[in-house]
Amino acid sequence: MQIVSAVVGLLVCLATWVNPQTGYDSEAWAQMSYQEIRAGIQAGVLVRQMSLEERVGQMLMCGFWGTEPDSQIIDMIRQHNLGGVMLLKYNIENREQLTGLLDHLQETARSSHFAVPLLVAVDQEGGLVNRVLAQGVAEFTAQTDIQNTQQAYQVATNRAQELKALGINVN
């Protein structure tokens, strides 16, 4: 059974490097590190151990009201293998509160049956749409203010680094 799971993991890993237009992308596959291949295999093994309900839970992302996790979101993480949480402005007061909140949510996920870390998402577009107004977050450039691809890349890189430092891994 573990061999089948390892093969499934490898196929999942390989599928991420297949171009639907041209097929197998040997150059991208050759650039994969050992760690990336191993992670793909481990993910496949883990998914094969999950029930259908647990797999569905991994595909869901839920929000909650307030600056502290309520019993429903904790239950979704512990009992239903929730894949992620979506944070909105009313979930975030300041940097300290936000990092404490995310530490609590991730610890809940780590202590669950499969110990899969949560995806943590915000909508941090810049301009008028900024959910995270915490200390250390300074990239608020509006999409309409971006002039070229180099500036777009720099804005995205800066925003990603700021969010990652807070524990947010999806924008």
What does this structure look like?
- By secondary structure, this protein is mainly alpha-helical.
- The chain has helices spanning 2-15, 26-31, 34-49, 52-58, 71-80, 95-110, 149-166, and strands at 18-19, 23-24, 61-62, 84-86, 119-121, 124-126, 129-130.
- A three-stranded parallel beta sheet has the order 3-4-5, with no helix packed on it. It has a two-stranded antiparallel ribbon with strand order 1-2. The protein has a two-stranded antiparallel ribbon with strand order 6-7.
- The chain is flat and about 45 Å long.
Largest sheet: 3 strands, parallel
Low-pLDDT runs: 4-19
- Strand adjacency order, main sheet: 3-4-5
Radius of gyration, in angstroms, nearest whole number: 19 Å
Tell me the β content: 5-15%
Total of helices: 7
Structural class: mainly alpha
Distance between the termini: 36 Å
Mean pLDDT equals 82
Q: Any idea what the shape is?
A: flat
Sum this structure up briefly.
By secondary structure, the chain is mostly helical. It has 7 helices and 7 strands, in the order H-E-E-H-H-H-E-H-E-H-E-E-E-H.
Spell out the blueprint of helices and strands:
Blueprint: H1 2-15, E1 18-19, E2 23-24, H2 26-31, H3 34-49, H4 52-58, E3 61-62, H5 71-80, E4 84-86, H6 95-110, E5 119-121, E6 124-126, E7 129-130, H7 149-166
Parallel strand pairs: 3-4, 4-5
Antiparallel strand pairs: 1-2, 6-7
